[in-house]
Amino acid sequence: MNRSAQYVLLLAVALSAATAGFFLSSQLKSGKVDTSALMAAALPDVSGAPRTLQDWRGKLLVVNFWATWCPPCLEEIPIFIDLQSRLGVRGLQFVGIAVDDAPSVREFARAKGINYPLLVGQTGAIELSRAAGNLQGGLPYTVVLDQRGRLLGRFHGAVQPTELERLLLTHL
Amino acid sequence: MASCALWCAIALGAAGGPEHDLLDPEQAFRLSAGMPDPRTIEVRYRVAEGYYLYKARLAFSTDNPAVRLGAPQLPAGEWHEDEFFGRSEIYRGEVTIRIPLDGQAAGRFTLIAVSQGCADVGVCYLPLTQRALLFPARPGGKQSQKP
Q1: Inter-chain touch A23–B122, beta carbons under 8 Å
Q2: Coil, strand or helix: which one is A140?
Q3: Which secondary structure element, helix H or strand E, spans residue A115, and what is its range?
Q4: Residue B84, SS3?
Q5: Could you say which residues from 35 to 64 on chain A have a Cβ atom under 8 Å away from some Cβ of chain B?
Q6: Beta carbons of B80 and A99 less than 8 angstroms apart
Q7: What angle, rounded to 10 degrees, do the helices at A102-112 and A71-87 form?
Q8: pTM score, two decimals?
Q9: Closest to B24 (Cβ–Cβ): which among A19, A136, A156?
Q10: Would you put residue A113 in left (φ > 0), alpha (ψ -120 to 50) or beta?
C-alpha cells in the first residue's frame, strides 16, 4: 500500500471512530421540541399539592421523568442529588416527574434523600414526556430547560453525567 | 490492511448502529394470540433483539366478564439481575404462553394483555396494554390484534 492510500485509510478510520463516538454519546439531543405543554401542565407533588414547572421559572431546570419500577432510572438519581446539592445555589433546579404512585415515590425519596421536588402522575406524566419529545415513552427521559423554559437538551435513557454537567455549567 | 479493514468495519458499524433509536413498545414487544382449541388461548410475544419483558409483570384479562381465564402457563425465562430489584425472570426472543379458559367462551372476545419491559441500552417502557380479538367458535380461531 502506498503512503497516500495509508493516509486515506487512516483518515477513514479516524472519521469513523469520531462518528461512532458521536453516536455513542449522542444521548444529549436538542432539536425542536415545544416545551409549552410541559411548562404549563399541573401535576401533584408527593404531598398532593398541584405544581407546575412555572413555579421554578427563572431557574435552569432539569426535568427528569422516572419511576421507582425502572432500574436505569434509579441508577442515576444519586448523580442528580449531587448536582442539585452542588449547583442549586447557582440557580439550578432539578424536578423529578415520576410515572408512578405517590406512596412509592414518597418512600423512595425518603430512603434515598432526594433533595429536589418530585411530581407524580400516571398517564398524564408520560403524555407530558411525549409532548416534550419522548416519543416512545421510555424511561428515564431528561430534559434541560433554560431560565425561560426553552429546551437546551434532552437525554433518552440515562444521562451522560459529564455531558450534563458541562451543559449546566454553560448556562448557569 | 486487514486490521484496518476490521477497525473500519467496527467503527462504521458503531456509527451506523441504532444505539438510541428506540423501538416503539408495540414493535419491541409484538403480541399475537389465537385459540388452538375452544378452551385455550395461546399468547405469543416476539421480543425484539436487545429488549426483554419481565415475566412477573405480565397480566391477562378479557373485555367479557363471562370469559374467565385460568392461570397463565408461563414458561421459564432467563434470570436478569440488577442492583435494585435483585434477580428477576425475563423473556427474550419468542415466548408462548397458554391460558386455559374456565369453561368455554360463547362468542368472540378481546384478550387484554399487559406487559412491561426494557431495552438493554438502559430504557424501560411503561406497562404496555395490547389487545387481541379472539374467535373461539372457529376451530383454531385466527387472532387479530388491535392497537
Answers
A1: no
A2: coil
A3: none
A4: coil
A5: none
A6: no
A7: 60
A8: 0.78
A9: A136
A10: left
Write the single-letter amino acid at B88: S
Q: List the B86-91 sheet strands across, edge first.
A: A138-139, B123-125, B117-119, B51-54, B86-91, B78-82
* Residue B91, burial from CB neighbour count under 10 angstroms (0-12, 13-18, 19+): buried
Q: State which H helix or E strand residue A124 sits in.
A: helix A123-131
Distance from CA of A37 to the nearest CA of B (A): 21
Tell me how crowded residue A29 is: count the other CB atoms within 10 A of its CB.
Answer: 14
Q: How far apart are the first and last CA of chain A?
A: 52
Q: Which of residues 86-125 of B touch A (CB under 8 A)?
A: 116, 118-119, 121-125
Residue A59 one-letter amino acid: K
User: What gap in Å lies between CA B108 and CA B69, rounded to an integer?
Assistant: 14
Whether pLDDT at B15 is above 60: no
Q: Does B25 touch chain A (CB under 8 A)?
A: yes
Q: Are A43 and A121 in contact (CB under 8 A)?
A: yes
pLDDT digits (tens, 9 = 90+) for A104-158: 999 999 999 999 999 999 888 888 999 899 988 899 999 999 999 999 999 999 9
Count of residues in chain A: 172
CB atoms within 10 A of CB A86: 12
Give DSSP secondary structure letters for A12-24: HHHHHHHHHHHHH
Please state whether beta strands B29-37 and A92-99 pair in parallel, antiparallel, or not at all (unpaired): unpaired
Reported ipTM: 0.77
**Rounded-to-integer distance, Cα A30 and Cα A163, Å:** 13
CB atoms within 10 A of CB B84: 13
DSSP state for residue A45 in the 8-state scheme: B
Residue A108 to residue B129: CA distance in whole angstroms: 26
CB contact under 8 A, B11 and A156: no
> Given CB atoms, is A17 within the 8 Å cutoff of chain B?
yes
- In the three-class reduction of DSSP (H, G, I as helix; E, B as strand; rest coil), residue A56 is classed as helix
B41 three-state secondary structure: strand
